[in-house]
Amino acid sequence: MVEISVCHYEAFSTIPGKGNPAGVVLEGEGLSEHQMLAVASRVGFNETAFVLPSDRADMRIRYFTPGHEVNLCGHATMATLCALTEQGRIAPGRSFAVETKAGILPIRIERRSDGFLDMTMRQAEPRFVPFAGSRADLAKSIGLEESDLDDELPVVFGNTGIWTLIVPVKQLDAFPRMVPRNEWFPDILKEMPRASVHPICLQTFGSGADLHARHFSSPYSGTVEDPVTGTASGVMGAYYDAYIRPGGPLPLQLVVEQGQEIGRDGRVNVEIGEEGVSRSVRITGTAVFVKEWTLSI
Q1: What does residue 212 show for φ and ψ, rounded to 5 degrees?
Q2: Which of 285, 20, 240, 32 is nearest to 128 (CA)?
Q3: Which of 42, 19, 56, 75 shows the shortest CA–CA distance to 258?
Q4: Domain that holds residue 154
Q5: Any residues with CB less than 8 A from the CB of 74 and at least 6 apart, and which?
């Protein structure tokens, strides 16, 4: 048996019980992939992050759902950086490089006036692939009708580190009605059957927010819904730049709200910039410590 210490943080909120819970294992070196998956399954959050040494960056992070490894996770990155800072392993006010399976990503950490941390994470260059499946079947898979979908905006797969399906919805009042049938997703998302589904809306619950979203997990992940998604928020920002306001001035700054329907309100700040002919995607968020416990595997 191996004793594993796990830290529980809530990302994209300063209030325990809000935002998105993540597990953080600061001593990931020496654990096998099988052990990491076993820990993530026992923890049960949408993602658990494992910190490892890197010969290419300041650190390496691997991310596991209860069902499989994923290339990148925004909220678990925020949780990990907060844990490392609070334990004195890294210091705010400087930049870092994090090795992930989505590439080496630049990170900046700043201490806010209220004592919390703001962590800015650059994501991978955005990519989009058209969705060629049935919009009616897609709508039914999240408990809606096709008429609830915004017919002026495209449904597309987007990626800034991991693939998700962006589904624009007309009205905010459709979101509390959503009931995902995650097990239907692979048959409907034929181009990318392992992708998640991310409905979005230009109407919001809170003032100061620009976009609202929910995030329904791939059935292979072992979870149903991700409360507040960092990587998918980056995809939303890139989608806004490409399809909602194409050709608009940059940098583009947006606030994404998520989690209200399940009592886990959180916010993600997104910035889309221009670097040569490419778009840069950065998300900024915070996190708060909840508890630490030990697992035996």
Answers
A1: -120, 150
A2: 240
A3: 19
A4: 127-283
A5: 11, 121, 123, 161, 229, 230, 231, 232, 233, 234, 268, 283, 285
Active site positions, annotated: 47
Q: What is the pLDDT of residues 262-272, one digit of tens each?
A: 999 999 999 99
Q: How many domains does the chain have?
A: 2
Q: What is the CATH number of the domain that holds 8?
A: 3.10.310.10
Cβ–Cβ < 8 Å for 182, 224: yes
| 75 in the same domain as 12 | yes
Token readout for 43 is: 């923890």
The answer on 93 and 22 residing in a single domain is yes
pTM of the entire predicted model:
0.95
How far CA 108 is from CA of 35, 68, 117, 123, in Å, comes to 30, 28, 10, 12
- Give the number of other Cβ atoms within 10 Å of residue 68's Cβ: 14
In angstroms and rounded to an integer, the radius of gyration of the C-alpha atoms of the chain is: 18
Quick check: helix, strand or coil at residue 91?
coil
Q: How many CB atoms lie within 10 A of CB 243?
A: 16
Alpha-carbon span 291 to 229, nearest angstrom:
21
pLDDT for 248-294, tens place per residue?
Answer: 999 999 999 999 999 999 999 999 999 888 899 999 999 999 999 99
Going by C-alpha positions, the residue among 235, 261, 204, 263 that lies closest to residue 74 is 235
What is the longest distance spanned by two Cα atoms in the chain? Answer: 57
